[in-house]
Amino acid sequence: MKFKILTLFPEIFPGPLAYSICGKALSRKLFTIETINIRNFSEKKSKIVDDNPYGGGPGMILKPDVMQKALDCAMKNSVKKKKLIYLSPGGKQVNSEKINQLIKFDELILICGRYEGVDCRFLEYNKIEEVSLGDYVLSGGEIASIILIDACVRLIPEVLGNKNSLKSESFQNHLLEYPQYTKPSNWKGIKVPEVLMNGNHKEISDWRLKKSIEKTKNVRPDLFKTFARKNREIK
Ligand code: ADE
Prior knowledge:
This protein has eight helices and nine strands. The chain is α/β, with parallel strands linked by helices.
């Protein structure tokens, strides 16, 4: 899978993606990252890329002409099955279903805003989907891109060694993950539940499902509703 990133701060990448599971996948070329520096596409000597918003208001807006040149460059030698994404708090919130859809593309072109964002005509003209990570504002799309890439990469077959670890992961079945324990079996007087130590796989998986359901009900009633609905549909 290929990620092309339009950014004013290419030096941020790969950043945390060079470590641990993603880092290994990056060295194995299971995914690639290419940055395109938006500033290189300014025609001004000053390398300016933004201007004041029409109608007034605070902040600066990334200019559509500069953004278009950067995007055209990214689209050169681009594959067919690609998707254009603008990371912004104004987009629809990403969830695990969305990540599962995104990994079906061979290439994601991620557009990182800064300041007050980009001229909306650029997004409309290029049919760019605006996506948000949550109801809070980050200083720019770069950190959001890194999070999105991480979430995609770990779903690429071959990236996670043990495929079972994906199955039981939070959100995969509209449930949060069950609680986990490791040695010592008694820590500060808190004992590991007996059922996890008896080696009975059926009892263990029943207990884990029960705990996942309890936790989801308490912490994420919205998610639990989806789980209950999907389960009814299956039955
Ligand atoms: N850029 C700034 N804030 C963001 C958010 N919440 N999600 C995605 N991109 C962003």
